[in-house]
Amino acid sequence: MPNNLLAGKVGIISGALNEKSIAWKVAQRAHAEGARFVLTNAPLAMRMGEINKLSEECNAPIIPADATSVEDLEKLFTGAQEQLGGKLDFMLHSIGMSPNIRKGKNYGELNYQWFQQTIDISALSFHKMLAVAEKQDAFNEWGSVVALSYIAAQRAFLDYTDMTQAKAMLESIARSYGQRLGKLKKVRVNTVSQSPTKTTAGAGISGFDAFYEFADKMSPLGNAPAEACADYCISLFSDLTRYVTMQNLMHDGGFSTTGISQEMADLMEKANA
Ligand SMILES: NC(=O)c1ccc[n+]([C@@H]2O[C@H](COP(=O)([O-])OP(=O)(O)OC[C@H]3O[C@@H](n4cnc5c(N)ncnc54)[C@H](O)[C@@H]3O)[C@@H](O)[C@H]2O)c1
User: Which positions are catalytic residues (predicted)?
Assistant: First the structure.
């Protein structure tokens, strides 16, 4: 049910690959709440063409940018401000990829060149976006930036390998830039730590189905779906959360503060019987 929460606001939404993407749902919700925005993704992802559907649906121009390239990001931020007619009020970083995960490397056998790519794509890209935005003075006062994270930043999870370190760095960048941009422009920067979600990036992790089920059984509210994550991001882009900054916000149905759930205890008892 739209409430015009983002009426008059403009921004950039990265990472919408297909209908399953969390960013796709954020774009649909932002559009419904009255925002105007530019969509962006890596040129390679563009070739799949699905983003054109979203662009039409939301009346949102697309500006391709490899988020590891400062040059591409400079064009993205100047292009977005031109197309939207002024400075930005919000930005979503919804970008993650690990060549090590894609190639099924375990934690003890990581390829270090790929490790660096994981960090560059999934964490440094956030720093680069914020650095370009700052240099271009691209944000309006009281703007809001959100990046998507995962609880592996705080806890060890089998098979999440080098993305674990990437997410820890992403959350740290949010704190450092939150401090900087808060002082400079009253811009807030947060990360949202989302439940396992069945998307292209999620499903690429080996053993994903098992830890999806595990998290679902452990969380009193169950895993948070992508649509609910989008709702939360919209609240963070809105003026209702103006003093929330430098936080890693758990959006996980209660997973992160549960010790053990009755469902898991019952399963263990059954297995031991
Ligand atoms: N799916 C989950 O279980 C889950 C849980 C918590 C957090 N997240 C995070 O949510 C974010 C979005 O992932 P998703 O689950 O919607 O999957 P997704 O695969 O739909 O989105 C990942 C996006 O990253 C983009 N990308 C990859 N390399 C890029 C580059 N060099 N430049 C620009 N864009 C690039 C991809 O094209 C894709 O659109 C990621 O940061 C992911 O780690 C996902």
Answer: 150, 160
